[in-house]
């Protein structure tokens, strides 16, 4: 098991959900955390709960969709924070559950820009340093939606299929280096995901998890922690995990 003491871990989408859960689990390991998100105030609130020193935390207010902002954020990191050991590409979202021929163009743009292009930007600006230093690990947050398409999922499923392909391609491109690549692909996880998908319709979002015991953000963070702490010669390529109440993207056992 690899020690994370003083390892530098960058987590995108760290202000809530799986990203915040990752921050909590890694804060107790002695790692140094770069927490990135659009909502700086949410990051600051999270830090107050982590019981870490200021030397262990560096906050980035960052929209991963903005390539120039990503380049600037990574290139201007203080020297003591620039040698990133682990990148957790967690920032992502779903918008809408409409039929493709009836969907909102802006929803498509937001999902593609965040889930695919944002992940690519962070990877492109960080991985060269990992290669030159001879160490590193990229963890991409995928989804069961990248394996199985479901009605209304069209473009969201396409973006997560892209994450899966990017992860596989990156692993192949890094062959011959010690840099590891992992895709963690959950099923139903109770986060702000459905609130965001349904544009703040909380009642509709609640029905997604009704009668089901979904995964929690902590469940996913625990799996990510396992993947990044394996021996250096071990690469966990892909993890697909779902709650016991879910058998596929569309088969869910709901208790009344």
UniProtKB/TrEMBL annotation:
Pfam families: adh_short (PF00106). The keyword Oxidoreductase applies. Belongs to the short-chain dehydrogenases/reductases (SDR) family. Keywords: Oxidoreductase. GO terms for molecular function: oxidoreductase activity, acting on the CH-OH group of donors, NAD or NADP as acceptor. CDD domains: SDR_c5. InterPro entries: NAD(P)-bd_dom_sf, SDR_fam. The keyword Oxidoreductase applies. It comes from Komarekiella delphini-convector SJRDD-AB1. It comes from the Bacteria. This is SDR family oxidoreductase.
């Amino acid at each position: 098991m690899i020690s994370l003491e003083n390892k530098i871990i960058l987590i995108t989408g760290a202000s809530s959900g799986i990203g915040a859960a990752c921050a909590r689990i890694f804060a107790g390991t002695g790692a140094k955390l770069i927490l990135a998100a659009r909502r700086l105030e949410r990051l600051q609130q999270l830090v107050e709960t982590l019981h870490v020193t200021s030397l262990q935390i560096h906050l980035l207010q960052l929209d991963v969709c903005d390539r120039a902002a990503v380049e600037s954020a990574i290139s201007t990191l203080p020297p003591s924070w620039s040698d990133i050991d682990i990148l957790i590409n967690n920032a992502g979202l779903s918008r809408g559950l409409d039929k493709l021929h009836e969907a909102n163009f802006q929803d498509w743009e937001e999902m593609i820009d965040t889930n695919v292009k944002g992940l690519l930007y962070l990877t492109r600006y960080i991985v060269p340093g990992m290669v030159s230093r001879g160490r590193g690990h990229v963890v991409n947050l995928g989804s069961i939606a990248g394996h199985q398409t479901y009605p209304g999922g069209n473009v969201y499923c396409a973006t997560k299929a892209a994450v899966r392909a990017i992860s596989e391609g990156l692993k192949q491109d890094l062959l011959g280096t010690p840099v590891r690549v992992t895709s963690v692909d959950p099923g139903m996880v109770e986060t702000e995901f459905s609130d965001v998908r349904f544009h703040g319709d909380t009642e509709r979002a609640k029905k997604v998890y009704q009668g089901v015991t979904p995964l929690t953000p902590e469940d996913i963070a625990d799996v990510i922690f396992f993947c990044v702490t394996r021996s250096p010669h071990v690469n966990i390529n892909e993890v697909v995990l779902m709650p016991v109440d879910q058998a596929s993207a569309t088969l869910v056992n709901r208790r009344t």
